[in-house]
Amino acid sequence: MRVLGVDPGLTRCGVGVVEGVAGRPLTMLGVGVVRTPADAELGQRLVAVEQGIEQWLDEHRPEFVAVERVFSQHNVQTVMGTAQASAVAMLCAARRGIPVALHTPSEVKAAVTGSGRADKAQVGAMVTRLLRLAAPPKPADAADALALAICHIWRAPAQNRLQQAVALQAARTPITPKGRTA
Amino acid sequence: MRVLGVDPGLTRCGVGVVEGVAGRPLTMLGVGVVRTPADAELGQRLVAVEQGIEQWLDEHRPEFVAVERVFSQHNVQTVMGTAQASAVAMLCAARRGIPVALHTPSEVKAAVTGSGRADKAQVGAMVTRLLRLAAPPKPADAADALALAICHIWRAPAQNRLQQAVALQAARTPITPKGRTA
Predict the structure, then answer these.
(1) Which residues of A are known catalytic residues?
(2) CB B6 within 8 A of CB B89
(3) What residue ranges do the domains of chain A occupy?
(4) Tell me: the pLDDT tens digits for B83-118?
(5) Which amino acid positions bind Mg(2+) 2, per UniProt (chains A, B) (predicted)?
């Protein structure tokens, strides 16, 4: 199973591709960050995020995309950017019929460290160990994206297969937006 | 000047096209709502919003897209959906080199009613009058989309022209997402 993990953000969008199955050693196929300049127009930044995600999908052909579920946090402006970047990532995957899974930060931390309240360093250390890397991926957004992918691989395989079938079916027969024109 | 107003939402995304210039009577070219089923997968709903917005852009070829600026409100779940739908609308416009303007609900209300705290009925009544319609557009999301378009037309024309030039230039030379692969 090949999963692209996405830690959404407008300034830094972490991306990481992991391959493997639950119970076996995992392999990292790629890790990186899609960056967009903070001084660009919001629309242009979203276009750049789209292009970046499309490149990762083209290059790695993941079977699943795992995106961090966005919650309202203290900083409203950051949350909006995160929600908008995550929308673009989900859109890119859904257009291709790739199932999208959302995992909360606590779920991801619990999956890779055993504790839903683990800190960044702990997550980085476990990602490094689980993927047998020489050093923790930097920045933290890149490590978080890999942790998301690992979290997804370790979910119930049966559930994943079902979701994959549903997403493929949905991409073949898209829901039609209902509009009306005066 | 032809403007597509978008009142973003996942369940109901209001859209309305208005043509005119400040100081002259305005014309409504179309109004509607892009709807997506609440029980569909989030990724599929975003794909449906994208298809709906693309249809409106294809049909009406607006020179500007005006989108309601999303604020964090009481209902976190609604705000996330609104932010995600607005991201899709901005993405569709920016990809085509159409400038995107964001207006707050207060700015829109103040523009069409004279008060930033006007209620839905008041906005609907003024939209009906300004566009010389037989009845207020329903649902409220559709009326709000028209109000957004009107608000945008009434902004300083010089500012709009500048923004248009910048957006076109940006679409011709898109900012490149910077990624790295391990």
Answers:
(1) 7, 68, 141
(2) yes
(3) 2-172
(4) 999 999 999 999 999 999 999 999 999 999 888 899
(5) 68
Q: How far apart are CA B150 and CA B25, in angstroms?
A: 11
User: What CA–CA distance (Å, rounded) separates A65 from A114?
Assistant: 22
CB within 8 Å of chain B, chain A residues 52-111: 52, 55-56, 59, 70-72, 76, 79-80, 83-88, 90-91, 93-95, 99-100, 102
Tell me if the bond preceding B139 is cis, omega within 30° of 0. yes
Determine if residue B50 is labeled as part of a ligand binding site. no
SS3 B34: strand
Nearest-angstrom CA–CA distance, A32 and B107? 40
What is the nearest CA distance from B23 to chain A, expressed in angstroms? 24
Q: Which fold has domain B2-172?
A: Nucleotidyltransferase; domain 5 (3.30.420)
A85-89, A160-164, B20-24, range with the lowest pLDDT: A160-164
Q: ipTM exceeding 0.85?
A: no
Vertex A73, ends B6 and B11: CA angle to 5°? 30
